[in-house]
Specification:
It contains ten helices and seven strands. It has 237 residues and is α/β, with parallel strands linked by helices. The chain has a single domain (2-233), classed as 3-Layer(aba) Sandwich (Rossmann fold). A seven-stranded mixed β-sheet has the order 3-2-1-4-5-7-6, sandwiched between helices. β4 (140-146), α7 (151-158) and β5 form a beta-alpha-beta unit. α1 (2-10) runs parallel beside α3 and α3 (46-58) crosses α4. Bound molecules: S-adenosylmethionine.
Length: 237
C-alpha cells in the first residue's frame, strides 16, 4: 500500500518522505476503521482515498501561493480534508480544523494524536458563530473549504476569517464556474476578489477540479457572517 501511495503522489510531483508516507497510511487506516462505526466518508478503497482525498487536498498547493509557515483554517473539514493532508505535507504550517459535527472532531483528534502532528487544533462549531469571534475573525493567512456549500454561501462563511491580503481557497468541481458567476454580489459585499482560477484533472479517476483562490481586499463588514443558517437560506446573490 505504501508503494502505491508513493507512486500516485510522485506522479503529480508530490515527493514524500518515509515519515510522511507512514502518516498517510495510518490516516487511511484510521479512516477505514472509524468509517465502520460512523459515517465519515463514502470512500472505502485505498485508491479512492488516495486520489479523492489525499491527492485532491494536496492539489491546493499547485496554486501559486506562498504556503510555508502560514496559519491556515479549514472550514467544514469533515474527516480532515483538505486541512490534514496539507499539514502532513507542509510541516511548517499551523492548521486549524473547524466542523459543526462533534463526532468528526473526535475522529480528527484521534488522527492528530496517532500521527503525532504538532500545531494542529480542532474546533467544534459553526463557521457563522466562529466568524464573529475576534480570536478567529481575520486571523488567517489562508482559509480552505471543500464540499461545504455553494460559493455565494461559502464566501460568507469563509472570507470573514481571512486576514487582509490573505486568501480563501475553494476546492470545487466544474460547477465552480457557474457558482462563481453567482458570487459577484457576495464578493463585493464581503471584501474579496478572484485572484487565481485553475482547472485540474485528477488522473487515474479522471475527475475535473476547479480551484479558486479569492484574495481579501478589504475588511468584511461586521454584519457578516449573518446568523447561523441565514447564509444558506438567503445567499448573497
Ligand atoms: N471538507 C470535507 C471533505 O471535503 O471531505 C467534508 C465535506 S462534508 C460534505 C461537509 C462538512 O461541512 C460536514 O462535516 C459538516 O459538518 C460541515 N459543515 C457544514 N456547514 C458548516 C458550518 N456552517 N460550519 C462548520 N461546519 C460546517
Amino acid at each position: 500500500m505504501k508503494v502505491k501511495f508513493k507512486e500516485i503522489l510522485a506522479a503529480e510531483n508530490f515527493n514524500l518522505t518515509e515519515d510522511q508516507l507512514d502518516k498517510f497510511v495510518t490516516y487511511s487506516n484510521l479512516l477505514k476503521e472509524w468509517n465502520k462505526k460512523m459515517n465519515l466518508t463514502a470512500l472505502e478503497t485505498d485508491e479512492e482515498i488516495i486520489y479523492k482525498h489525499f491527492l485532491d487536498s494536496l492539489f491546493c498547493l499547485k496554486l501559486d501561493l506562498n504556503w510555508q509557515e502560514k496559519k491556515i483554517l479549514d472550514v467544514g473539514t469533515g474527516a480532515g480534508f483538505p486541512g490534514l493532508p496539507l499539514k502532513i505535507y507542509l510541516d511548517s504550517v499551523e492548521v486549524h480544523l473547524l466542523d459543526s459535527l462533534k463526532k468528526r472532531v473526535l475522529f480528527l483528534e484521534e488522527v492528530i494524536k496517532n500521527l503525532n502532528l504538532k500545531n494542529v487544533f480542532c474546533f467544534h462549531g459553526r463557521a457563522e458563530d466562529f466568524g464573529k469571534n475576534d480570536a478567529f475573525r481575520e486571523q488567517y493567512d489562508l482559509v480552505t473549504a471543500r464540499a461545504v456549500a455553494r460559493l455565494p454561501v461559502l464566501l460568507e462563511l469563509c472570507l470573514p476569517f481571512v486576514k487582509k491580503d490573505g486568501f480563501f481557497i475553494a476546492l470545487k468541481g466544474p460547477e465552480g464556474i457557474n457558482e462563481l458567476e453567482e458570487s459577484k454580489e457576495a464578493l463585493s459585499l464581503l471584501g474579496g476578489k478572484v485572484h487565481t482560477l485553475k482547472h485540474f484533472i485528477i488522473q487515474g479517476i479522471r475527475q475535473e477540479r476547479v480551484l479558486i483562490a479569492f484574495q481579501k481586499t478589504s475588511p468584511t463588514p461586521s454584519k457578516y457572517p449573518r446568523k447561523a443558517g441565514i447564509p444558506q437560506k438567503r445567499p448573497l446573490t
